Amino acid sequence: MPRPISIGILITSICCVSASGALAQAPAPSQKQSTECPATREYITALEFMRSRDDLAIKDRAAQEVATRVAQGCTGAAKRFISTIALLRQAELNSPEAVEIGLEYALGTDAEANTFSFVFKRAFVSDYLDLDLRSALQMARTLSSELKTDQDSVRKDFEQLLETCARSKKLDLPRPQCGTFAMRITKKGENWNGGVAKSFHAALDFLTSEKGPSLTTGDALKLAEDLIASGPGSVENFTQAYRYAVAEKGMNLDREQAIAFSRKLSEIKKPATSSEQKR
What we know:
Layout: E1 15-17, E2 23-25, H1 39-52, H2 60-71, H3 77-90, H4 95-106, H5 110-124, H6 133-146, H7 151-167, H8 175-188, H9 197-208, H10 217-229, H11 234-246, H12 255-266, H13 274-278
């Protein structure tokens, strides 16, 4: 059975079903204090959405219980709930699981829900990775929920790394492997500020260039990944060290010796302060 989903799927508004059955915009909350929680609005919006979707097959008492949990996510919870469910149902995920995942992101943040949607679409649709439903779900949930880092950086890193892999003849990896590659590098950037894609690409370019070690693409990918894993500053340290190591007025080392020397320097970390050690 064909999968009725495209890259253009995106729910951009929150609606609720009026007594007459027509869709109507939920009332906007007053903006007196940022600490206020528009629980009633979120509850009604989520409940009426579930009542309007026969395919969800949720009994009203159960829907009320779910709506109460959605309301605990406060501002934007119903929108996150609805958009996540709509996406997953179009991908033909079963209703109970779609509702459960929708609830998970209703209780999270907008950034997490946006990352989930972004990654899932690129993992699932045929234009990109064309993964099976379960693999796409696992990838999207990992990158949106498990990483303790800025979600904007996660999305940008994943997109740029995926483009590098999927669209580049240089790497020539099968699409599923591209997804695994992009996710793995993105996860290694958890402790980086501002993402890792730019540094990874810089490392890959240097390692394969004549000004660098001129490694094969396979060897360069492995070394670039190791450098990213060493943390912020590692790529710059490696590059500077290698140039000095092979220079006649520097250390005048051969390629293998220069790589070993540069890796050692790139792995040096700033010692943690006493306050950081206590955390």
